[in-house]
Write a structure and sequence with these properties.
This protein is α/β, with parallel strands linked by helices. The protein folds into four domains: 4-31 and 158-260, Phosphohistidine domain (Glucose Oxidase, domain 1), CATH 3.50.30.10; 44-153, Enzyme I, Chain A, domain 2; 308-439, TIM Barrel; 442-595, TIM Barrel. Helices cover 47% and strands 13% of the residues. It has 24 helices and 17 strands. It has a nine-stranded mixed sheet. Strand 6, helix 9 (200-208) and strand 7 (212-214) form a beta-alpha-beta unit. The longest helix has 30 residues, at 47-76. The chain is globular, with a radius of gyration of 25 Å.
Length: 595
């Protein structure tokens, strides 16, 4: 839930952190692309010419999008340019086009009005979808319809070529095509009322490394173009008309970030080792292969989590083929070094992506998702497993199974993998038989059965995001209860301790691949609890490495031991942040609040 704070003329809004970093600049309020459309009743003789005018507008829109696509591909590569393919496909969708043309005929309406009415009806359908990712695709439809209306009305589209070099975009919702045309040298940040982490615009922002905050709800009504604005992409906060002291604070913080970026490159080869000698593995979480550059730039110890379901999001035919997957997994194997890559099997369903034919559910978090869906749609599961086993001959690959809640699921998955290997052997297809198979620990039942899982799994991957959600019965995307989502809740810490004990007794490794790994204060507690393997977004690695190198393991063990005795989230948060500040007091300033 966004909160509105006011001090003198300074205003602060809190939203969703989309891309980290601090941006300071001049606000540019992006006009509402929908504009005002007037309905015109056509004469009978004007209907077919109006349809022809609509068709020509679609052709022009396709030409414009193809040009934007080429610019995006040159700037970010094929992996990110695919985002605009959805727009092109919508323009080619004859079903939508026929609906608009039929509306023109039936209502004798001008094309602008027909496009708006038909698209609004479809947007209402998207708005009812519970799946966050699919619901966000309504933005693509809105973007395309706005482009067509702009062409039909003769309005000149907004361009960003003449912006000052410190512009920060403010909008109700920054549409993907606008984000794709942003010049990172001139556009230093953006803030939007709507949007979220999974939107295409958010993906582009992170690719361009532009500090951004979304979900602010009321930012457009609290600022005018030309006013000074600060984007705090670390805390998910936007400051409008900052007071002099606030401005000085953030100018200093931005300067430190810029200097730190230089240090990060200089220090990339320093080991992640505590002050008293405990080595820590810092791995990378990625979902797109173009992120491999970041894996190497920040010197990650391999890939701790590859979210394979994003292959499904990009597949042109609806599902990635075995060969398409094989090429991706082969690239991971070849480029992730001796540390290798952990591939999570498709975590589809729930509040994530959905397979065609499977509708969003009333209670998606507890529904047909992840390993449950893989067992239900065996052809999809088998295709993925074949591709992974084949690619594993090119390097060190591991498999981790998401949302495992009982031993029968683990045993069935291992049996299926063995059968796939036998099938490949019979077909004389090169593959690896002995891949390490791990379990994602995300649900409470897995914690209580951890000692049994540890006897049959090669490793544990701790998904702290879902584990916290399920332990606390809190949907962190729900603005009414997300304040209760707290990874420092005593029950979360005690659950993690139980898991570590089970893994240590069975002598299998545990990697934390949830957001706790990239939060400095939480990472210290994880170290103190006994986890020495952390996986995070690649850009978070330098900060966590600095934290690790600044502390003694013996001291963070004492910190974690005492934290386990506390009984409220507030007590844990207060104690940990105070003690972490003391531990880091004699080193370079490091915020313990987050990345």
């Amino acid at each position: 839930m966004s909160a509105y704070l006011k001090t003198s003329t300074e205003e602060r809004l809190e939203g969703i952190a989309i891309c980290s970093g601090v941006a300071i600049g001049t606000a540019f309020l992006v006009d509402d692309p929908r504009g005002r459309i007037i309905r015109v009743r056509l004469r009978e003789a004007d209907i077919e010419p109006e349809i022809a005018r609509f068709r020509r507008a679609v052709e022009i829109a396709q030409e414009q999008l193809n040009a934007v696509y080429q610019r995006l591909r040159e700037a970010l590569g094929e992996e990110q340019a695919y985002i605009l393919e959805a727009h092109v496909l919508l323009l080619q969708d004859q079903t939508i086009g026929r609906q608009i043309e039929q509306f023109i005929r039936d209502n004798r309406a001008n094309a602008e009005w027909a496009v708006r009415v038909v698209s609004n009806r479809l947007l209402e359908v998207y708005a009812e979808i519970t799946d966050e990712y699919m619901r966000a695709r309504g933005t693509d439809l809105e973007d395309v319809s706005n482009r067509i209306i702009t062409i039909l009305s003769g309005t000149q589209p907004r361009t960003f070529e003449n912006f000052s070099e410190d512009a920060i975009l403010v909008a109700d919702d920054l549409l993907p095509s606008i984000a794709a045309e942003m010049n990172a040298e001139k556009i230093h940040g953006f803030a939007t009322n709507a949007g979220g982490w999974t939107s295409h615009t958010a993906i582009i922002a992170r690719s361009l490394n532009i500090p951004a905050v979304a979900g602010l709800r009321h930012i457009t009504s609290h600022i005018r173009s030309g006013e000074t604005i600060i984007i705090d992409g670390n805390a998910g906060q936007v400051i409008v008309r900052p007071a002099p002291d606030t401005l000085r604070f953030y100018l200093e913080q931005r300067s430190r970030e810029q200097q730190q970026a230089v240090y990060d490159l200089e220090e990339r080869d320093l080991p992640a080792i505590t002050h008293d000698g405990q080595p820590i593995a810092l791995r990378a979480n990625i979902e797109l292969t173009d992120e491999l550059d970041s894996v190497h730039r920040f010197n990650a110890a391999g890939i701790g989590l590859f979210r394979s379901e994003f292959l499904y999001a990009k597949a042109e035919s609806g599902l990635p083929s075995e060969e398409e997957q094989y090429e991706v997994y082969k690239l991971l194997a070849e480029t992730s070094g001796h540390e290798g890559a952990v591939i999570r099997t498709f975590d589809l369903g729930g509040d994530k992506l959905h397979l065609d034919g499977f509708k969003a559910e009333r209670n998606p978090a507890l529904g047909l998702r992840a390993i449950r869906l893989s067992f239900k749609v065996e052809e999809v599961f088998h295709t993925q497993l074949r591709a992974i086993l084949r690619a594993a001959v090119h390097g060190n690959l591991k498999i981790v199974l998401p949302m495992i809640s009982n031993l029968d699921e683990l045993r069935y998955a291992k049996q299926t993998i063995a059968e796939i290997a036998q099938e490949l052997r019979a077909q004389h297809i090169p593959h690896t038989d002995d891949l390490a198979i791990g379990v994602m620990i995300e649900v409470p039942s897995a914690i209580f059965l951890a000692e049994h899982f540890a006897r049959e799994a090669a490793f544990f991957s701790l998904g702290t995001n879902d584990l916290t959600q399920y332990l606390l019965a809190v949907d962190r995307t729900n603005e009414h209860v997300n304040h209760l989502f707290d990874s420092f809740h005593p029950s979360v810490l005690r659950a993690i301790k139980l898991l570590i004990q089970a893994a240590q007794n069975a002598q299998i490794p545990v990697t934390v691949c949830g957001e706790m790994a990239s939060n400095p204060a939480q990472a210290l507690v994880l170290l103190g609890l006994g986890i020495f393997d952390l996986s995070m977004t690649p850009s978070a690695i330098p900060l966590i490495k600095r934290v690790i190198r600044a502390v003694d393991l013996s001291l963070v063990q004492k910190l974690a031991t005492h934290a386990l005795t506390l009984v409220t989230p507030a007590e844990v948060n207060r104690y940990v942040h105070e003690e972490a500040a003391k531990l880091l007091a004699h080193h370079e300033p490091v915020s313990t609040q987050g990345t």
